[in-house]
Amino acid sequence: MYAISPTHRKSVHAIALWCWIFRGNDADYRELEGWPTDVVETFISRAEANYSSHIMCLLERRWQPMDSTQISLPVDELPKKWYNIAPDLPEPLPPPKEPETGPSRLEFLKSTMIGECLKQESSSQRWIQIPEAIRSLYVQAGRPRPLYRARRLERSLGLKKVRLYYKREDLSPTGSHKVNTALVQAFLAAKEGKRELVTETGAGQWGSALSYAAKLMDLNCIVFWVRAVYRWKTDRRTFMKLLGATVHASPSQETKVGRQLVREDANHQGSLGIAVSEGLEYADEHSGSVYCLGSVLNHVLIHQSIIGLETIEQFKLVDDDPDLVVGCFGGGSNFGGLALPFAGEVLKGKRECEFLAAQSEAAPNLVRGEYRYDFGDVVGHTPLLKMFTLGHQAEMMPIRADGLRYHAAAPLVSALRHHGLVEAVAYPADERVIFEAARLFFQTEGWLVAPESAYAVRAGVDEALKTEKAGDSKAILMNISGHGFLDLEAYKEKLNIE
Q1: What is the pLDDT of residues 305-320, one digit of tens each?
Q2: What radius of gyration do the chain's Cα atoms show?
Q3: CA distance linking residue 405 with residue 156, whole number of Å
Q4: In b/e form, how buried is each residue of 304-318, taking b as 16+ CB within 10 angstroms?
Q5: Spatial separation of the C-alpha atoms in residues 339 and 326, rounded to whole Å
Q6: Residue 68: what pLDDT?
Q7: How many Cα neighbours within 13 Å face the side chain of 391?
Q8: How far is CA 233 from the centre of its chain?
Q9: Which domains occur in the chain, in start order?
Q10: What is this structure's pTM?
Q11: In which element (H, E) is residue 411 found?
């Protein structure tokens, strides 16, 4: 019979835990004493040959069974660096350009945006250190966020071979992933001596996140909110004002571009491109103010990489890997945040994975846009960026998932799309099928998602059913970028709820 020796104690401990997880044997290493020696030695040999990574996880008490529903990463394993995919792209990212006429847009950004963010914008570093103060803010805001296995949704769909997972970015203080960059930008602005943050918002999630971050840094916050959404999301407006923000319906009377558009059309619905123009103009004209952008630009996607970096580690805990990563897509912050760390490993030959962006027919920049240089705002305050774009002055009908109604895609994601690494799908602008998927998710998984996140759910469900029908096995990862608690009016309208 086997007796544990000091040299074998760690290995036997690992094997006992291996037996418990893989075979349902609730044993610890002491219970192996008295087992037949040849049996124990066989376990040790098999583990050392085939399960070394599992053993390391087990010894650290990190590994979680495949049947886990919630997959959590310990706080002390919160990533210490952001990932920048730019150095790993198939070819260098096309740089911003000045237009042929008018003042320098690059100099304009230097005078209106956060200096450290602009350094990150053009950084060639693959890994960028996260300041400890920001890591502390991340922890206070609830990071790391859990990854879930959608077992109830799988059963509802009759899936046998397809596994569905979702990342819970809705579990932030303001209800979305936007906090990930809002905290960084507010921290850096305060460090540079700024007194006021100015921004745009579409669905209201970014405006809420920056209002929250500004208050933590004792800064003022001015939000230009797309008028079409400002009108119906009254509770979201209250949320921002509770955090001390000043919120203007855009186009507004606060800027030249806003006043001009209102003169032309008193009922102008507004757009993200217009709100960006107003925010930049306002920041330029008010001393101590700085403009913060919530999506599209490289530094925003770098900050958002915290999502994908966490998720990579969480998949290791259940010995699985996503074959398809799905996210809703407007400008690219939530999709990029989840997908780019995985895409970087694809580019380096470390994994195989596909990527799908879910859009609205109201703004299908990746589906129908052209890959060319264009402005990031309606007026043309920004430099020209190489993006998939519908045109910076394109008219796009308002939708309930208005955070997706933007004319162009982030340059980093656009480059991946150009090289064939990202696919995209656009759903009808009436959004009926989107909200039906969100209702199914709510009734099975128990979480009410934002209209924007519902696009990821819709695409994830569609891909799962298609894969199951083909008889293939696949793991699909969806990003739940926000909750829908302040979007109930949209649910009532789209699902005809009395």
Answers
A1: 999 999 999 999 999 9
A2: 24
A3: 31
A4: bbbbbbbbbbbbbbb
A5: 8
A6: 77
A7: 4
A8: 22
A9: 9-59 (no CATH), 81-133+177-291 (3.40.50.1100), 145-175+305-494 (3.40.50.1100)
A10: 0.87
A11: helix 411-418
33-42, 139-148, 172-181: range with lowest mean pLDDT: 33-42
pLDDT of residue 176: 97
Helix 105-112 with 272-285: angle, nearest 10 deg: 70
- Measure the CA–CA gap between 230 and 201, rounded to whole angstroms: 10
User: Closest Cα to residue 338, out of 119, 122, 168, 494?
Assistant: 168
Length of the chain: 498
Asked whether 176 and 294 are in contact (CB, 8 A), the reply is no
Provide the token pair at 95: 């740089």
Question: Structure tokens of 227?
Answer: 């008028």
Tokens of 42: 């066989």
Cβ-based neighbours of 450, under 8 Å, separated by 6 or more: 170, 175, 176, 203, 205, 401, 403, 481, 482, 483, 484, 487
AA letter at 152? R
What the block records as the tokens of 94 is 């096309």
- Are 186 and 219 within 8 A, CB to CB? yes
Grouping H, G, I as helix, E, B as strand and the rest as coil, residue 427 is: strand
Q: Token match 């074959």: residue?
A: 323
Residue 385 has pLDDT above 50, yes or no: yes
d(CA 414, CA 387): 5
Q: In angstroms, rounded to a whole number, what is the distance separating the alpha carbons of residues 211 and 223?
A: 8
Edge-to-edge strands, sheet with 220-226: 246-250, 220-226, 196-201, 289-291
**Residue showing tokens 């400008």:** 331
Angstrom CA distances, 46 to 3, 4, 57, 298, stand at: 19, 18, 16, 46
Interval 413-455: pLDDT, tens: 999 999 999 999 999 999 999 999 999 999 999 999 999 999 9
Nearest to 335 by CA among 121, 127, 193, 167: 167
Q: What is the Cα–Cα distance from 399 to 402, expressed in whole angstroms?
A: 5
203: left (phi over 0), alpha (psi -120 to 50) or beta: alpha
Closest CA to 163 of 152, 154, 173: 154
E strand residue ranges, 59-195: 70-71, 81-83, 127-129, 147-149, 162-168
What is the C-alpha separation between 1 and 120, in angstroms, rounded?
62
Burial bucket for residue 195 (CB in 10 Å: 0-12, 13-18, 19+): middle
- Cβ contacts of 61 within 8 Å, gap of 6 or more: none
